[in-house]
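Predicting holo structure, EPU bound.
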Amino acid sequence: MEIRQDVDLTPYNSFGISARAAHFVSIGQPDELAAVFRHARQEKLRVLVLGSGSNILFVNDFPGLVLHMATRGVDLDESSGRVRVAAGEVWHDLVVTCMNKGFHGLENLALIPGTVGAAPVQNIGAYGVELGDLLVSVTVFDSAELRFRTLEREACEFDYRHSLFKQLAGADLVITEVELQLSRDWQPETSYRALSEALQQAGISEPTPQQLFDTVCQVRLSKLPDPARLGNAGSFFKNPVVSKQKYQALLADFPAMPSFPTDEPGLVKIPAAWLLDELGCKGQGRGGAAVHEQHALVLVNRNRASGEDIFMLAQDMSSKVLTRFGIALQPEVRII
Ligand code: EPU
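Done. Tokens:
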């Protein structure tokens, strides 16, 4: 275990913000975790666990220890369709590997940036599928008790872009491995509108896994910027969930406002991108930060933005939404 000091975090966050970590360690084996946390405890250092940093905004330098999870390993049991994956694996590579081996279910989640270990934290989801639909269990290292534990899906408390791992009760848990249930015998999930429209346009009525995967990639790439080319962290805010009454009242003033059903009958989800688009946010900027031209929910590092540029732009956006629609947007991105 090599702990480095005063490390530039630019390569470790997809916004490409040049914050610094006072201490930094990258681990390749889960059994190194006990030593890392003993050291942090001894030195009274706060620990920040990082995968590939694709859902984080550094507004400040981090004064504690950044723990970069670089563990590797994919173990697919072909008889059961269960796959156990180390936290440091790249999510999109896992999607491709499983599909190519004939095990399906992850196709809708293609091209989501980030690592496997980060996926349960925000319960990644796209085009009608959420990680929680496929997850069997998560192995965690409990840094308070210095031991490994297995949490079954129920214990992970998955919700829309939410889980136990975002709560105080999960604050001591470091995800080291994820177990998913995939299937050979597979039904495509094509209900998401942008996806069904793209399939229809391509003249595909019953997509193969590869066709569904390709279409998801095509839809994503048409709207969402590639973080390798233009720093970003995907959707900056969650889509707000409001009561049906509130939505009906808003419709009186904004008849074109779309909504999506939720699991709760009295609540609907409103696309934050629509609210922001209505306010003319696309292309607006602050310092080196800007709202993406193709998607109003995505903030980008247009020109050497500081974390504060991005944060202040996000603040402007959410206060405009609050004033106009009476809706308080919540960030999806973790802000440090
Ligand atoms: N829309 C606009 N203006 C825009 C973009 C979208 O008005 O600039 C409206 C349209 O009405 C569109 C609706 O917003 O139908 C929804 O847009 P989109 O399909 O792009 O999805 P989203 O709700 O903005 C969510 C996730 C994405 C995920 C897509 C596809 C959240 C916060 N974001 O975005 O996830 O890829 O659905 O499932 O739930 C992420 O979490 O980082 C992320 C990118």
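The chain has three domains: 4-69, 74-181, 231-335.
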